[in-house]
Records
---
Amino acid sequence: MPETIFSKIIRGEIPCHNVYEDAHVLAFLDIFPISKGHTLIIPKEPAETLDKLSDDASAAIGRVLPRIARAVMAATGATAYNVLQNNGSAAHQAVFHVHFHIIPKFGDEGLGIGWKANKLDNAAGESLAKDIAAKL
């Protein structure tokens, strides 16, 4: 895995505004926030994308993500938030180390999403669901 800014933050070579840390996870404020309280949650295990992350590291994030979201909401007074996680440059991933964003919403401040939905064909959906399930 290539060296990233998150690798350096994990090792303490670059300072961060730490909000949570345990043996497997580090959470800190984003230095380029799109809203007050914008927080990043990263595994200490190096993995570029979520599908490359171990089950143990994934579970460690899953255990603390809700707790950190509650703390961000309480500290900022936000009543809504987004959790964002991008995988690959085509999906707008900029730092190639798994990370989750908790982005509080305050009116227009926060994450804006344009969502162009399509209709799922029933037969195609049934076939695709079977294909995905078979890969598990």
---
Amino acid sequence: MSDIDTNESPEPGPETLETVDDSETAVNTLKQELDASRDRYLRLMAEFDNYKRRAAKEYERLTESANEKLMLEIVEVRENFERALKAGESGGDFAPFFDGMRLIFAKFEEVLSRNGLTVFAEPGEPFDPAVHDALVNTPHPEIPAEHIAEVFERGYRLKDKIVKHARVIVSSGTGGE
């Protein structure tokens, strides 16, 4: 046998005990830092969830406020229609009735325009498949090919967004072409 016995462990000296103590201290310090980081993370996530809820409520409140303003303007137009219909029921001359309807329609157009709605699609305009839906392609004696010959339903744009495509009949040019 050899002079060195591998089964016996050397007695821990002061250097080994200091290393163990330093390791335990380091582990405890890291655990505390991890717990503190975890706590900060959980608080931050809770704060972010609260922010999202507040932002969603604020957005809903702003939307309702904007809708309320628009509805009040539309209610005014509705009341004008109601008055005109009552006046029309009294019978008699329909010319003033139609004049009143034209005025109400103009007021309604003003309300829509003021709130960012514009109407588009007129006969003679170039056909654009991005904003127009072609129903039929037909010859037209006066309107050139690939232009709107007739508007079946107007298109509507809210600010910069198309909210309804125009439905149109497209000219294929004159019948002799």
---
Amino acid sequence: MGLRWKQMQLRQKAYVEQKLQNRLSFLSGKKIEAPKIDKDPLVRKLQANIRALNHRLRLIADHEKRTEEMAKIKADRAAAPPKEQEGGKVKKPKKAPEEGKEKKIKGEKKAAPPKAQEGGKSQKAAEAPVKSIQE
């Protein structure tokens, strides 16, 4: 619902209002009384068109207002430092797994007890490269 849509609705409203004024002046020229003028089918149709156009214009105004508010909120969020942002998902650093607790991997047998491990490697793994170097 851009500016063109709004302008088109305003033009239509002006056109319908002009037609209504012409019809009212025509009926008053025939010396028809006010209660009968209100019951005239063309007058009622033109008045309904004006109400519909007013409703559309009100929706357009609400949409423009909401768009401006969202732009303002977006600008505020961009200007605020990332720490001060409220709401939304905040990523927290995951805790490092505690020493001695290891997840089991499918197909793998239970690892050696934590005492036998040194720096995350078992003694057998540490000794194997040393033997190959000495040979």
---
Amino acid sequence: MLKFHNIMSIKIKNRHRLKSKDIRKYQNDLKVIFDEIFFDEKSTVEIGDLDGKIIIFIDSEPCFMSYNDKIVFTLHGLNKYKPKKNFVIVDMGAVKFVTNGADVMAPGIVDVDKDISEGDQVWICDETHHKPLAIGIAIVNGEDMILQEQGKVISTIHYVGDELWNYVAKSL
């Protein structure tokens, strides 16, 4: 889970534009996961350090981040690009827990992308509005998320209201 101490003192360090080969690598990684390309070579792609977290900016917007050396969406990026894969839908009773950074438990899940594999990045949304609430890493595959009756199934790494969300909201 992302933790920042003082939002006002956070600054982007070492922000720089990526080379074409690095951009293609990120594009390919995303295509493997989501079967989509979310930005092209004409996009300005920069990377920067935000209090120890690597943020990837597409046309000056913080759309992705690096987590365990993999590219993952930020909530801002999810709202911008609206991927169709790797979703997990939770019931409205789970929303308050997810938006407070809790890991996702099996009983709160109402639907998932069945193609999710253990270790994949997933995005969590509510069943009523389908608005992204959090980004997490699947602890089990999509089928098991539905079948399991108890226990943790997603480890949350970024959520509405966390320090990264608040930083992005203030900077845009």
